[in-house]
Every structure is written in C-alpha cells, then in structure tokens.
C-alpha cells in the first residue's frame, strides 16, 4: 500500500498527502512535543516536518520505513528550532527529553519509595542543568532519545569523533557532579 501512496505523493496527489498526514500526524506531533515541550512549537515542527517530507519524498529508499523517516525529520526540525530560539534569546536548551524518557518508570506504590524517586529525579535534573549546553545536548539525545552517535552527529551537524568525545566528557562531568552532589547532601545530614 505504501508504494502506491509514495508514487501518488511523488506525483503531487493532494488526497494521498492528506491520508499520509492523517496516518502519521500523531506520531510526529508526539515526537515534536516531546522535544519542544510546547504545543505551539510542536505544531510548527509538525507542519515543517510534513513540508520537508513532501519535498524530499524521492530520497526515501524504503517505503516501509516512512514512520521512522518522519520521526527523524521531526527530531531534527525540533532540535533546529530549539537551537534557533536559544541563539536568539540566550535561553539554555531544556532537558525535557530526559524528563520524559528516563523518568517515565515509577516502581513501588509506597509513599516513601515514591518520595525517594522524586528526590532522585529532581537531583538528576538539577545536575543535568548544570552541564554545559553542548554536553547536555548529547546526553539528552544519547540517553533521552536513545540515538546512536552517528545519528547525533547528523542532528547536531558535528563530526562523529566530536560527538563521541562530548558524550565521554559529558558522562564524566555528570558523574563528578553527581558524586559531589551526594557528598554535599551527606554532609548536610
């Protein structure tokens, strides 16, 4: 079915584009919202993603991977949008990727366990916020989005060696910040 859809899209069939949009709208919106944490920005990313996809449909090699392809476009578009906002406003990139992905699991039903988990989440969030922006970005993309170094390099427009180095240095920095945070908390008790 997708092959006939692809052929119609490449012929600029508006009805087929609408069907494709309806089929993947929710998936792309969730990806965009996950990254931007803003409804309006996610709507912008959604629109831009489909415009880019329609314009570059001939580059899609495997018709069966259109959902994944749209997700990659949405991720890149959202990251680019956040970068543009950061440059123009000076606001640091948020760590919203990690907030949703890493901390979704809640175990135990006891209040004490839940409180401890909340404290750990808050502690990790605050420590991640202390990382320099370039370290925070690779940590979020690597562990929050579960992307490979090659994908991160493409998204950030960096060499893969640079990305690997940043991930390594970011993990070390995060580890040292967490350890110093633990010792400070232990001293205050």
| Discrete helix count | 9
The main β sheet shows up as: none
Number of domains: 2
CATH architecture tag of the largest domain:
Orthogonal Bundle
Q: Looking at CATH, which topology of the largest domain would you report?
A: Arc Repressor Mutant, subunit A
Uncertain runs are 91-110
The level 1 CATH classification of the largest domain is Mainly Alpha
Helix content percent band: over 70%
Order of helices and strands: HHHHHHHHH
Structural class: mainly alpha
What does this structure look like?
By secondary structure, the protein is mainly α. The chain has 2 domains: 1-91, RNA polymerase sigma factor, region 2, helix turn helix motif (Rna Polymerase Sigma Factor, Chain: A, Orthogonal Bundle), CATH 1.10.1740; 92-189, Arc Repressor Mutant, subunit A, CATH 1.10.10.10. Helices cover 78% and strands 0% of the residues. It is elongated, with a radius of gyration of 20 Å. Mean pLDDT is 75; it is low at 91-110.
In short:
With 189 residues, the chain is mainly α. 78% of the residues lie in helices and 0% in strands.
List the helices and strands and how they pair.
Blueprint: H1 2-10, H2 14-36, H3 39-55, H4 66-89, H5 96-101, H6 111-130, H7 133-144, H8 149-156, H9 160-188
Helix pairs in contact: 2-3, 2-4, 3-4, 6-9, 7-9, 8-9
Summarize this structure as a short list of keywords or feature phrases.
mainly alpha, Arc Repressor Mutant, subunit A, 189 residues, 9 helices, Rna Polymerase Sigma Factor, Chain: A, elongated
